[in-house]
Design brief:
The complex is a heterodimer. By secondary structure, chain A is mainly α. In chain A, 42% of the residues lie in helices and 7% in strands. Chain A has eleven helices and seven strands. Chain B contains no helices and eight strands. Classes of the chains: A mainly alpha, B mainly beta.
Chain lengths: 259, 107
């Protein structure tokens, strides 16, 4: 399977070698949802068939659970997530003034745990972190992603853009080679898609579980035979920032379902 | 972990054909996979699903290792009387979960 993909990748490259053609025009942007088969769309459309809702419901329980030495629940400060968390996922990663760098939603949750609940951080891709971030992000469903407007974010977005266009790995491919230049084509039978982070964390049928954007990007990096960055590395947040700026205006779908 | 997502129409007319949708949270470990150390991961799947409508069994399914995680089972039945749907999932390693949903049937 991986070999077949590599061959297909190479074939794709042979026909489309000129590096980065251009970014996708606004009018042509499409969510990964629009590339899916009707059956897969149906799984996402109905909250009683969307397995991502299992995590959202768990996240709601965790939201109300008192934890840490402070014995506080998220709800004790933020109250009703339906109002307090609406739109939050659409404007993350956001710049953290104390840390001096941007943080994504998962990191924000862990910062909140450390600072206000005095609880240990949740591990990346752990069930509880996915559940909490799915619950928080689900409150922003249908909210348009806002372009990172904080001027302090600019260098990080720029760095993300650079990473997106930088060839890497044994296959010497940049994200842009597939997701900007060849999104309307197929790779071993699967749609390439435009890489808009509209539905994270999302339920991927291939994973049979919920996963973060970082996990998805790791899978891409393995696919091009590059060494993935470490968990929580700043590069992930920079890439995420650039992807969010690319997807500005598109509605949040969390929890999305993808093949 | 939240156990199940259930979708039964809250209201139906007597004689209507209704769709019942269920989604149960389960890893459905096949028993064929090995860890990095080469040890077999023990099988852990749901083996049986049953639905009773006012106590009477209307649907039953046996599940096998090839079924994906978080099995989604949907089926049709006829709305006969107001009452309750009881769902039961039984599996390996003592797994047992139940859920129920109410329906109102009008003439």
């Amino acid at each position: 399977m991986i070999l077949a993909r590599a061959i297909a990748c190479a074939a794709l490259l042979a026909t489309a070698l000129p590096a980065r053609a251009s970014e996708i025009p606004q009018a042509e942007r499409r969510s990964g949802y629009s590339f899916m088969a009707p059956d897969t769309k149906a799984i996402q459309d109905d909250d009683t068939t969307n397995p991502g809702m299992l995590w959202v419901l768990d996240g709601e329980t965790l939201w109300k659970k008192k934890i840490g030495t402070a014995d506080k629940a998220c709800a004790d400060c933020h109250d009703d997530a339906r109002t307090s968390m609406k739109g939050v996922a659409a404007r993350h990663p956001a710049f953290d003034k104390t840390l001096g760098h941007p943080v994504n939603l998962e990191q924000r949750i862990n910062l909140c745990r450390a600072q206000h609940q005095q609880a240990p951080p949740l591990a990346y891709e752990s069930h509880d972190l996915l559940a909490l971030s799915a619950f928080v992000a689900e409150q922003s469903r249908d909210v348009a992603i806002s372009a990172p407007s904080d001027p302090e974010l600019e260098p990080f977005v720029a760095n993300g853009r650079k990473l997106f266009g930088q060839r890497q790995g044994q296959l010497n491919l940049a994200c842009a080679n597939c997701h900007d230049d060849n999104w309307d084509k197929h790779l071993a039978g699967s749609a390439v898609t435009q890489a808009h982070p509209t539905g994270y964390p999302m339920y991927r049928l291939e994973w049979q579980t919920l996963g973060s954007l970082e996990r998805r990007m790791r899978a891409c990096m393995t696919g091009i035979r590059a060494q993935a960055f470490d968990f929580g590395a700043p590069e992930w947040v920079e890439l995420e920032l650039y992807l969010m700026s690319r997807a500005a205006g598109m509605p949040i779908e969390t929890p999305a379902v993808r093949p | 972990m939240t156990a199940a997502l259930i979708n039964v129409p809250a209201k139906a007319r007597r004689g209507d054909i209704i769709e019942v949708k269920t989604l149960m949270s389960h890893i459905m470990e096949t028993g064929y996979r090995r860890t990095a150390a080469g040890e077999l991961v023990p099988r852990n799947i749901i083996t049986s699903f049953t639905c009773r409508y006012n106590g009477k069994e209307v649907f039953r399914a046996d599940l096998f290792p090839a079924i994906a995680a978080n099995p989604f089972i949907s089926f049709f039945t006829v709305a006969t009387d107001s009452g309750k749907f009881d769902f039961e999932w039984i599996g390996d390693q003592g797994f047992s979960e139940t859920a129920s949903a109410a329906i109102t049937v009008v003439e």
